[in-house]
Amino acid sequence: MTALAGEHLTDLKRAIHTPDIGHQAAQPAIRAELSQLAHVLVRYHDQIATGFGVPHTQDHGVRDAARRASTLINHAEQLLGPRPTTEASESVLAEKIRCVSIALGCGLDLLASHAPTTLTEPASADAPTIAATDTARALMHQLSTHTATLGHLARHTGAPSNTATRPLLTAAVLTRVFGTNERPPINPVPLRHIPERLPPAVGENPARALTGISASIQRLNNPNAPGSIATWRYLARAAAIACDLNSKTVLHLTRRMEELNENDHVSHLKQVTKSIRRTSGRWKAITRRWDTYDNFGHPATGLATDASDLIIRLGRIIHADPAWTPSPRASYQLKPPEELAATTADAARIASAALKTLEACNVIAANHQTAINDVAVMGVLQQQQQRPSFSPRVPASTRRLLELYKATEAQGIQTVTTLGRAVQALAADNPEHTDEARLIIRRATTKAMPTQSTLAATGFPIAIGDCLTDSDPGLRSSSPNSGGERNQKHPTP
After folding, report:
1. Residue 167 CB: number of other CB atoms within 10 A?
2. CA spacing 20 to 30 A to 61: which of 15, 115, 431, 452?
3. Residue 478: what pLDDT?
4. Which of 140 and 4 is assigned the larger pLDDT?
5. Region for residue 346 given its phi and psi (left: phi exceeds 0; alpha: psi -120 to 50; beta: otherwise)
6. Secondary structure of the chain in the HEC alphabet?
7. What is the mean pLDDT of residues 444-470?
8. Please, are residues 81 and 35 in contact by the beta-carbon 8 Å criterion?
9. What are 45-64's pLDDT values in tens digits?
10. How many CA atoms lie within 13 A of 1 on its CB side?
11. Cα(6)–Cα(440) distance, rounded to whole angstroms?
12. Which pLDDT band holds residue 223 (cuts at 50, 70, 90)?
């Protein structure tokens, strides 16, 4: 949330230097929003000063600085006036200030949720980390920028609220000094960070190849990437090819484990090979279904390029040709098992890349709604042209394609779970790979669990259909139509 607040704060910094900032900041709505932001900053520093209500160390003077900063910002809040009373923002600048307040407030609520609210309630496992001095220092370092920006904006609000500038800038300097004695241990995670494309190169080393595979997977997992029918057709075919390549890779790793006499890993990898082949068959069925539709132009360049990069690198990892590309004339000669993975640790790295690739295929299977909807609309329009009707139905072929995607996702989740456990066994001495595999398994199993709506629909004591019929024998006998007509349906008058 602090990263999101930082993005909005960048817009506020630009607004300070606009020619009409004096006219904008003089509005009462701006003073009210600045007062609200100051109130949020006061809450932050109060929580830092008390260690979020959990045991903490008192050294380094960090919490004393937070108390002094809280007093200064609270004084500035009083000078800025009352906080806003309306839900809607009255200007673009006011909306940006409110966005910063909301993002920071949500982040504070998340941190405070780890602390006990009653004497009998235990603190969470992360509470000691949140209350640590290093965490307090890192938070104050981040908040100093927000406090300074607030002070510069308050300067343009006009008298008497512009007098809030001095205590705000004093608080910003104070928190900056106590927040920069050490390197901040906590860095905000960029929201939906999409790495730049790394084009595959002939003869690139294994480390760069695995880095490129991860970059392509992250780009394919972007939920905001534009798509089309042609794009989803291309991605389905790419997923089928990727599954085939991963099947070859896992089979080759199995042979390598046999050479190393790692019998436990051999049995796990054999199960993975069977599961990947089933997933590949599902994707091939989707591809054949797509081939029955007309061609709708070319796929989106970005997604198609990322899928192509992924396939090329997966193929070059397993094939002996360093310039391998997917084509009818491509070489089928594979690398020797010992070259693919000299040790068990190498096998874990290769298997982890296959695991992330299969998860990306599951993401493709789960995010197919746009293409399915477009196909359904086109099918309905075609039906209306041939047989006009007031109640058009979704074509059976579209429903079948939807069922194929759902079945493929379910099979893919099973495959990811099986391969993830095999990776955990291979990388037992490498926490980086085991933690990543455990996280991927958790994401997969979470998707496979029934949703809240499904649980609610099945949580009734009696099925809905039974509730709509008279199930009491006594009532049935007294009904005038009870003679042998229990299940007879009558039109509603």
Report:
1. 23
2. 115
3. 42
4. 140
5. alpha
6. CHHHHHHHHHHHHHHHCCCCHHHHHCCHHHHHHHHHHHHHHHHHHHHHHCHHHCCCCCHHHHHHHHHHHHHHHHHHHHHHCCCCCCCCCCCHHHHHHHHHHHHHHHHHHHHHCCCCCCCCCCCCCCHHHHHCHHHHHHHHHHHHHHHHHHHHHHCCCCCCHHHHHHHHHHHHHHHHHHHCCCCCCCCCCCCCCCCCCCCCCCCCCHHHHHHHHHHHHHHHCCCCCCCCHHHHHHHHHHHHHHHHHHHHHHHHHHHHHHHCCCHHHHHHHHHHHHHHHHHHHHHHHHHHHHCCCCCCCCCCHHHHHHHHHHHHHHHHHHECCCCCCCCCCCCCCECCHHHHCCCHHHHHHHHHHHHHHHHHHHHHHHCCHHHHHHHHHHHHHHHHHHCCCCCCCCCHHHHHHHHHHHHHHHHHHHHHHHHHHHHHHHCCCCHHHHHHHHHHHHHHHHHHCCCHHHHHHCCCCCCHHHHCCCCCHHHHHHCCCCCCCCCCCCCCC
7. 55
8. yes
9. 888 888 877 766 665 578 88
10. 15
11. 29
12. low
Bridge partners (DSSP) of residue 334 are 319
Torsions phi, psi for 393 (to 5 deg): -120, 150
Q: Six-digit token pair at 370?
A: 């746009």
Per-residue pLDDT tens for 168-207? Answer: 999 888 888 776 554 444 455 555 567 888 999 998 998 9
- Report pLDDT for 118: 61
- The more confident residue out of 92 and 60 is 92
Inter-residue contact 216 to 184 (CB < 8 Å) = no
48 vs 393: CA distance, rounded Å: 60
**pLDDT digit string, tens, across residues 337-373:** 999 999 999 999 999 999 999 999 999 898 887 778 8
Task: Read off the amino acid at residue 184.
Answer: P
Residue 138 C-alpha from the chain's centroid: 25
